[in-house]
Amino acid sequence: MKNAEAGDNEGLLVRRIKNGTVIDHIDGGEALNVVKILGITGTTQEALSIATNVQSKNMDKKDIVKLTNRELSKEEVNRIALISPKATINIIRNFKVVEKKGVEIPHLIEGIVRCPNPGCISNTNEPIRSRFEVHLKGLHCCYCDWMITKDLTSHII
Amino acid sequence: MRTQHIISIKDFDREGIDSLLDKAALIDRQKGRSDALNGKILATLFFEPSTRTRMSFESAIARLGGTTLSVGSVDACSMAKGETLADTIRVVSGYADAIVIRHPREGAARLAAEFSSVPVINAGDGAGQHPSQTLLDLYTIRQSMPIEGIDVALVGDLRYGRTAHSLAFALSLYGVRLHTLSPNGLELPETLSADLRESGMEIIAHDAIDDLIGEVDVLYVTRVQRERFPDSASYFNVSSSYRVTPEILTGAKEHLIILHPLPRVDEIDPRVDDSPHARYFEQSRNGVPVRMAMLREVMQ
After folding, report:
1. Among B10, B84, B106, whose Cβ lies nearest the Cβ of A143?
2. Contact in structure between B116 and B3 (CB atoms under 8 Å)
3. Are A149 and A137 in contact, with CB atoms under 8 Å apart?
4. pLDDT per residue over B117-166, tens digit each?
5. Which of B162, B205, B226, B292 is the most buried if burial means most Cβ atoms within 10 Å?
6. Is residue A124 a contact partner of residue A50, using CB atoms and an 8 Å limit?
7. How far is A141 from chain B (nearest CA, A)?
8. Residue of A122, A137, A140, A143 to mutate for B, most B C-beta atoms under 10 A
9. Which residues of chain B are within 8 Å of residue A126 when distances are taken between CB atoms?
10. Nearest CA-CA distance, residue B104 and chain A, Å
11. Are B107 and B133 in contact, with CB atoms under 8 Å apart?
């Protein structure tokens, strides 16, 4: 049987998971940012495996993230598109891939990225979440009109 | 019905701007008094100093038969006790039929609109937007000439001046050619000029006021703030080189108009005030009919 997580060499590096999500084809070196953008920290409950700079047939190098016992929602999946638009998501149940999908760049992202403008109202104690429209040129702050055009990952909350 | 707010000039298309300016012109022709907003209450929340904007909004609501509710100084209000703007807005929108807000942080008016149950008008949010100023600037130009296809010069602090940014954007909707003149380091932000050029606007940067004065139909002068310079000497050097004087104007087109959002300091020689080119006090007066049209738009 083909490896359920459909990876190339990662079977050697990271064990298969019984239930959860495998995020494959992440751009090489971006795995930790994917984990960050999903809000997974050392204090959250998921068992997490990360493989970085794995050889890939279609990509020069890729990263893989495996999350045990957690199926990502569509909104969570689409956040990943901001930093790794080629990523694929495999939902695993009982060692089998029950769903495989790509990521879609969302039109609007909330509470994920901090506005770099220190004068922006979203950088205060107001009861709001940061909100950005996703444009071809970058992320546009819906509050202060600031555009983030590069180094997006350094602005992830 | 959805509550209508006026937060940014970017929320308008050209048709929307023209329609509002037409309404302002009608109010102006009718000598600017009516009871259209009789019994309505306008809350003015100014978290930053303001003379012209605040007084002209208060004048506008009074001329429409409404009244103003104000917190007085910021020190005296609950924000000084640590209340969030969101809470202040939720409370004040229970007392008034519309809110005019000026706040030091960019995006504050957008936030206010999210939490308000009544219309919000942005009267300036930090270095962000100031749509009523832009509308009255356009109104003043239109009194003298059609805006379409003219040459407009923006002079002064184009980096931090919110009035210059909003006006440049609005002018791009009218096929205007933009001329800029600013001290080193106070040029139009690169992202804004890139956006304007992308929208088809031609922008020409100049080094001296003599270079542009013969080419433009409108000279829009903004204040260069002293605190942008390391010392007084360098400030005076720069500010004197941008000064509009009667001598400079000898090379101007006959129909040139000079605008300034005021307050001015040294940018325009007082001797220019009596010249037929000077329109800045008229521009300031136009704040009333334009703001009356804005209030009618959102409160009726």
Report:
1. B106
2. yes
3. yes
4. 999 999 999 888 999 999 999 999 999 999 999 999 999 989 888 899 99
5. B292
6. no
7. 9
8. A143
9. 84-86, 111
10. 8
11. no
Q: What is the pLDDT of residues B157-189, one digit of tens each?
A: 898 888 999 999 999 999 999 999 998 888 998
CATH H-level, domain B9-129+287-299: superfamily? Aspartate/ornithine carbamoyltransferase (3.40.50.1370)
Between CA B156 and CA B220 the distance in angstroms is: 9
A23 and A94 share one domain: yes
Q: Does B84 touch chain A (CB under 8 A)?
A: yes
Distance from CA of A72 to the nearest CA of B (A): 30
Instruction: Give the number of A-B residue pairs with CB atoms closer than 8 Å.
Output: 53
Question: Amino acid identity, residue B64?
Answer: L
Same domain, yes or no, for A95 and A144? no
Domains in chain A, number: 2
| B86, B104, B106 ranked by CB distance to A117: nearest | B106
pLDDT one-digit tens code per residue, A87-135: 999 999 999 999 998 998 889 999 889 999 999 999 999 999 999 999 9
Q: What average pLDDT is seen over chain B?
A: 92
ipTM value: 0.89
Which positions in chain A have a beta carbon within 8 angstroms of at least one beta carbon in chain B? 117, 119-122, 124-128, 141-147, 149
pLDDT of B256-276, one tens digit each? 999 999 998 889 999 999 999
Written as six digits, the tokens of A84 are 């790794």
Cα separation, B158 vs B172, in Å, equals: 16
CATH superfamily of B131-284: Aspartate/ornithine carbamoyltransferase (3.40.50.1370)
